[in-house]
Write a structure and sequence with these properties.
Layout (H helix, E strand, L loop, with lengths): L1 E3 H4 L11 H11 L3 E6 L7 E11 L7 E6 L4 E6 L9 E5 L4 E2 L2 E2 L3 E3 L2 E3 L2 E2 L2 H4 L21 H4 L5 E5 L13 H12 L26 E3 L7 E8 L8 H9 L7 H13 L4 E4 L6 E5 L5 E3 L5 E3 L5 E4 L4 E4 L3 E2 L12 E7 L2 H11 L4 H6 L7 H16 L4 E2 L4 E4 L7 E5 H8 L5 H10 L3 E5 L2 E5 L12 H12 L20 H16 L3 E2 L5 E2 L1 H6 L20 E2 L4 H11 L6 E17 L8 E14 L5 H16 L5 E5 L7 E11 L2 E9 L1 H7 L5 E7 H10 L14 E10 L4 H9 L5 E10 L8 E10 L8 H19 L2 E2 L2
Parallel strand pairs: 13-16, 28-31
Antiparallel strand pairs: 1-12, 2-12, 3-4, 3-6, 4-5, 6-11, 7-8, 9-10, 14-22, 14-23, 14-24, 15-22, 16-19, 17-18, 19-20, 20-21, 25-27, 26-27, 29-30, 31-32, 32-36, 33-34, 34-35, 35-36, 37-39, 37-40, 38-39
């Protein structure tokens, strides 16, 4: 959008010390982004007044002429195609290097004759639509004079980036931007009412009654219209043409130019109808398959979602976008109807897109205009018509049809909230002054301000405290706020130790111990549990089970893992499957939140379960070795014990079930499956199961000192192997603990072999250990180790009836 500095000065008296560049910078910092600032005269750089000295027929073209033109400093040969070029005329000449829009003037050869410029028509200069011939100037023009001096172009044009205006419908007119300049420059803004002649808006004598009907007040919240007589459609006065030309709008005729002038000034589009054609006005939706020829001489196909201005028979205009050819004014028009309306922005936008037609009017309507602008714009238009056409007068009353006015937007602004957001404290008086300069109404309420939003900002712009904050800070000046990094206390996220432990367990089992992880539903069935001799009556039943196989919440991970064994046993001769998941117990657990607050969920506990299946393998020993390896990798010098279990398991015998203990913690159990249970499940190979509580394991994990780096011993260890034959009932861990505690020289003990056979005798087994002897301050000698070893053997013989095996 282009902004005329001279036009702005109609409403705000800018100080002489403020340059256009400084004004542009302030606009950018406070309101909208400025793309460029140019002198109006720059449009006509290298464009001068010339005098035609000679005109001859082009030797190689019937419609071209070769002219000699005096441009002051030199005489130029210029090839011209205009029929009206004659000797003695004062004309506008674009010299080589001049730019007229996208056209750059260069030395060229036309049909064999060199041409050193161009004699211009009105449309080529952007001063009108006339291209019938070259523009001929009056006798006041001087040969060689700059064309910009001839036109007395002394304005400065500011180009505003349209994207900056997307949410500001009040800025789509000169007056809106003048209001902003007044606010941030602390200058007085002239009231728009000062530019309205109320007498021009009043009529004497008998007036007609306009026939106007609005059928859809949602799409047209306000519609104003008035009829005028004594109209003479003619060329606009020079001041009006010049003002429109400055912002890139071509002059058409005095009536259209005045409606455009008001639109560019206030941001409210207007439209003029020929009153001899328009006898009545109906604002309605288009009929199915309705058509209209718009002012751009194109036929438009309408649909019932589009709003039109019509008479009783046909559409006269597409509401908010463009008028129709059949109702437009012309040189014979003597009476007109001026329309000032407010249309729904969404409707205008959709119609514009469907028709592929975007106009200055539609761009403004789709931003959501203030309905109050209709009255101001209409009165300003009547004022200008009376100024240009003194004989024009009102022929009807002003029609004003409006929907119910929207309630004003009132926002409560907490000053503490505002200052916290800004990071600085702005005095209350200054806050109120800033808001009042933007025409907000402010009521002081101690720590709160009660702010009423002006109607021109209440369309879709200002809706809450955040919007008010933005208004304050942009007027206060972003450059007046010292940029500071926010003070934020950074802290490492809280470590979820249970989850990390769970991941470590999975990695160890899957990557190091060659087990396969499984994921099962958290549901089981009564039939499934019965095969395992498990009572299903104490399981939680589901109200809406996903299938008949998933009717209960599981209390153990074992049933579903055994089903995994059954499904995979045909493909693999050896299986080691594990799962980590929740079990559900019928006791109160976590309390629900939300609408069911107060109710409790079933208690959930994480478990680790492993199932092993293979032929010719001691599955209990395999299970023990897995849990020992897991503990060794996670715990610092774990002391696991495997003792007889008192737990009743429906699927395993007590004699084939071992509890897993460490210190005072009962972690879980290892058990071999009953043969009849295997048969019930149709499992072909022996199976052992292991299930431990992850919660208990985690408590143990926290209670034991975590692994830390230990400096390697400086002196070598002495390793001896001892193999003992002991009664079968003796647990290896008991012997291990006695060995470790027997002497300070013994640093570690590792079981590396278990053997049972006929050669050992009935109810006997052989346990073989690696023993490491070591001192931290010197190297041991064999005699010292021999003495400790002899005493140890004697001690174990008495304690466990252990005999050395050769």
């Amino acid at each position: 959008m282009y902004l005329s500095l001279a036009w702005i000065k109609d409403f705000v008296s800018l100080p002489k010390t403020m340059s256009p560049k400084e004004l542009g910078l302030k606009l950018t910092m406070h309101t909208v982004e400025i793309d460029s600032i140019k002198s109006e005269a720059e449009r006509f750089n290298n464009v001068v007044v010339g005098k035609v000295l000679q005109v001859e027929k082009h030797p190689n073209a019937d419609r071209l002429k070769v002219t000699t033109v005096d441009v002051g400093k030199e005489k130029l040969n210029i090839v011209c195609g205009a029929a009206n070029v004659e000797v003695g005329q004062l004309v506008v000449v674009s010299l080589i290097g001049a730019k007229l829009g996208s056209l750059e003037i260069k030395e060229t050869e036309i049909r064999g004759i060199s041409s050193y410029g161009m004699i211009c028509a009105e449309d080529e200069l952007g001063l009108g639509d006339n291209h019938d011939g070259i523009m001929v100037l009056d006798k006041k023009a001087k040969v060689g004079q700059l064309f910009s001096d001839y036109l007395k172009l002394d304005d400065t044009i500011i180009e505003v980036d349209n994207k900056s205006l997307s949410n500001r419908p009040d800025l789509w007119g000169v007056y809106g931007l003048a209001r902003e300049i007044s606010a941030f420059s602390n200058l007085k803004l002239k009231p728009y009412s000062d530019f309205i002649n109320e007498k021009a808006c009043q009529a004497s004598g008998k007036l007609e009654k306009l026939d106007v009907k609005v059928e859809d007040k949602e799409l047209c919240p306000r519609y104003m219209a008035v009829k005028l007589k004594g109209i003479k459609v003619a060329e606009s006065p020079l001041w009006l043409q010049k003002r429109l030309s400055a912002i890139g709008s071509r002059s058409i005729n005095n009536i259209v130019d005045i409606t455009n002038y008001v639109m560019f000034e206030l941001g409210q589009p207007l439209h003029a109808f020929d009153a001899s054609i328009v006898k009545s006005i109906v604002v309605r939706k288009a009929n199915k398959n309705e058509r209209i020829n718009t002012l751009d001489a194109k036929e438009r196909f309408l649909n019932p979602e589009m709003l039109v201005i019509a008479d009783k028979n046909k559409a006269l205009a597409v509401a908010g976008i463009m008028g129709g050819e059949n109702s437009g004014i012309n040189s014979d028009t003597s009476e007109i109807i001026i329309e000032a309306a407010n249309f729904d922005p969404v409707s205008v936008r959709k119609t514009s897109q469907v028709l592929g037609l975007r106009t200055d009017a539609s761009m403004r309507f789709e931003k959501s205009l203030d309905p109050k602008n209709c009255e101001l714009a209409l009165k300003r238009c009547l004022t200008l018509i009376k100024k240009v056409l003194p004989k024009a007068e009102l022929a009807s009353e002003i029609v004003d049809i409006r929907a119910k006015e929207a309630e004003p937007i009132i926002i409560s602004l907490d000053l503490d909230w505002l200052n916290n957001r800004l990071g600085i404290i702005i005095g209350k008086k200054e806050l109120i002054s800033i808001l009042e300069s933007l025409e907000f109404l402010v009521e002081d309420g101690d720590q709160h301000l009660r702010i009423t939003v002006p109607s021109f900002r209440a369309t879709k712009d200002i809706n809450g405290p955040e919007d008010i904050l933005e208004e304050i800070v942009r007027m206060y000046g972003y450059n007046n706020i010292n940029p500071l990094m926010p003070s934020v206390q950074l802290a490492a996220p809280k470590i979820n130790e249970p989850r990390l432990l769970e991941r470590q367990i999975k990695n160890i089992l899957a990557l190091e111990l060659a087990c396969t992880e499984t994921k099962n539903y958290s549901f089981v069935s009564s039939e499934q549990l019965n095969k395992l001799n498990i009572d299903s009556s104490n399981h939680i039943k589901l109200l809406n089970p996903i299938s008949s196989q998933h009717t209960l919440l599981r209390k153990s991970l074992i049933p579903n893992l055994l089903n995994n064994i059954k499904l995979n046993q045909a493909k693999y001769s050896k299986l080691a499957l594990f799962e980590i998941g929740s079990i559900f117990l019928d006791v109160p657990g976590e309390e629900k939140s939300g609408p069911n607050k107060g109710e409790t969920l079933p208690y959930q506990e994480k478990k680790l379960a492993i199932v092993l299946s293979a032929d010719k393998t001691d599955l209990l020993v395999w299970g023990k070795s897995l849990i020992l390896a897991l503990a060794k990798r996670l715990l610092f010098e774990p002391e696991l014990k495997f003792e007889s279990c008192n737990q009743e398991l429906g699927f395993a015998s007590k004699t084939e079930t071992v509890s897993i203990l460490c210190q005072d913690y009962d972690l879980g159990y290892i058990a071999s499956l009953f043969q009849d249970v295997q048969n019930n499940l149709n499992i072909k190979r022996p199976v052992a199961v292991l299930e431990i509580s992850l919660k208990t394991f985690f408590d143990l994990y926290l209670s034991i000192k975590s692994k830390k780096y230990q400096e390697p011993a400086r002196y070598p260890a002495v390793t001896r192997d001892l193999s003992f034959v002991v009664p079968e009932k003796i647990l290896y861990n008991d012997i291990k603990q006695e060995i470790l505690g027997f002497s300070e020289l013994i640093k570690s003990v590792e079981l590396f072999d278990i053997y049972q056979g006929r050669n050992l005798g009935e109810a006997k087994k052989s346990l073989a250990f690696h023993l490491n002897y070591q001192l931290s301050d010197r190297t041991l000698v064999s005699e010292e180790v021999d003495q400790v070893e002899a005493k140890l053997i004697s001690y174990l013989e008495k304690k466990f009836e252990a005999q050395i095996r050769n």
